[in-house]
Design goal:
Layout lengths: L4 E7 L3 H11 L8 E6 L6 H7 L4 E5 L6 H10 L5 E5 L3 E3 L3 H11 L3 E10 L4 E3 L2 E3 L5 E3 L14 E2 L7 E5 H7 L11 H11 L3 E12 L7 H18 L2 H25 L2 H13 L1 H13 L5 H5 L16 H21 L3 H7 L9
Parallel strand pairs: 1-2, 1-4, 2-3, 6-12
Antiparallel strand pairs: 4-11, 5-12, 6-7, 6-11, 8-9, 10-12
């Protein structure tokens, strides 16, 4: 079936979640769908439970905690269905959600990836699609807003949440999927922006719903990975013209984040992330060359997916004058990009590629 799903679930000590996920998932499957649990060296009963859940669920053990991104790759390689559905073990598909997600494949041929509306257990929104600021910061769109704020119809977003998203297998293989070296956090932003750089659309189908037992857990390890991976994405994915224009803002933003980190007690972690970014520059630049070789849109078109809003629930709100200044700066950057670069059609033709609507 052209709309069959390969459901990939990466686990690490997720025994408490598996029975609930299986109960919600199995009734939504079609005969040609596949389900694989990839376990990253759990020390609890995850593996035992996974073997006993249902004959339709396959199990792959990595033998080590290789991270979310690499675990997803193991799951993709163990399946064959044309649509990849990644689900966190603490996600519960609501009735009819998989049918609606698979329908998007035919309804939105220009989309390479899409997500459902991810809801909190109390009925509020967890994410209606990822928001990406031009400094590389990202967060869950409409987080903790009431369900009534959801859009009525599918629409494009900056990137799809790794907690629950569909990606076309052929595009996953062509672009290399999630970046293994990220380990955890930010790999969904990175892939979403690479999809956009290659001319694909990314969207949300708000009529498909999943429930997520989610809580933002702050800690040194998370802040380190968020900051290191943010810089790897900015330096690897952003077109050169965009990087040159926002370089002053990146520098000022970094100084601001250092001040926030010092105030909130994670300055050492922030500095470690900076050193890791510098130490990893050779690898990042090699990766950048490969990514930019596949660019099919102008820097201006790529920038259209980025936001000047800084309504990040995990960071302090900027003073209004500063917020207005950085938004004005972004408007200027986009104006300069539009006036300086060729159209997406010209770039796509020069690269021998097609625009998304032609795919």
């Amino acid at each position: 079936m052209s709309d069959a799903l390969a459901v990939v679930i990466v686990t690490h000590n997720a025994a408490a979640e598996l029975v609930g996920l299986a109960g919600a998932l199995l009734g939504e499957l079609e005969p040609d769908d596949e389900v694989v649990i990839v376990d990253n060296a759990s020390s609890d009963a995850t593996v035992t439970l996974a073997r006993e859940l249902d004959p339709r669920i396959a199990l792959r053990e990595t033998g080590a905690n290789v991270g979310f991104a690499a675990g997803c790759r193991v799951g993709v390689n163990a399946t064959a269905a044309p649509l990849l559905l990644f689900l966190n073990p603490d996600v519960r598909p609501q009735r009819g959600s998989l049918a609606r997600l698979r329908a998007v494949a035919g309804e939105r041929p220009g989309w390479a990836a899409w997500q459902p509306a991810v809801m909190l257990e109390d009925g509020r929104i967890n994410t209606s699609g990822g928001v990406a600021h031009y400094l590389g910061l990202s967060w869950a769109g409409q987080c903790e807003q009431p369900e009534s704020e959801l859009a009525d119809a599918p629409h494009e977003i900056a990137f799809a949440s790794g907690a629950a998203c569909v990606i076309r297998r052929e595009v996953w293989l062509a672009l290399g999927g999630f970046e293994d070296s990220y380990f955890l956090y930010g790999e969904d932003l990175d892939l979403g922006l690479r999809l956009r750089l290659s001319g694909y659309g990314v969207g949300v189908e708000p009529r498909a719903r999943v429930t997520h037992n989610y809580e933002f857990e702050k800690g040194p390890r998370k802040w380190f990975l968020l900051e290191r991976n943010r810089w790897r994405t900015v330096l690897g994915v952003y077109p050169a013209a965009l990087l040159a224009l926002i370089a002053p803002a990146l520098l000022l933003g970094e100084l601001g984040l250092l001040a926030i980190a010092a105030r909130d007690g994670w300055l050492t972690v922030k500095l470690r992330a900076q050193f890791a970014t510098i130490g990893g520059l050779p690898q990042t630049l090699r990766r950048r060359r490969s990514i930019q070789a596949g660019r099919a849109v102008s820097a201006a078109a790529f920038a259209a997916a980025l936001s000047a809003s800084l309504e990040n629930p995990n960071l302090a709100r900027l003073p209004r004058p500063l917020a207005l200044a950085q938004a004005a700066y972004w408007r200027l950057v986009r104006l300069l990009l539009r006036s300086a670069e060729p159209s997406p059609v010209s770039i796509a033709r020069a690269a021998g590629q097609h625009r998304p609507e032609d795919r």
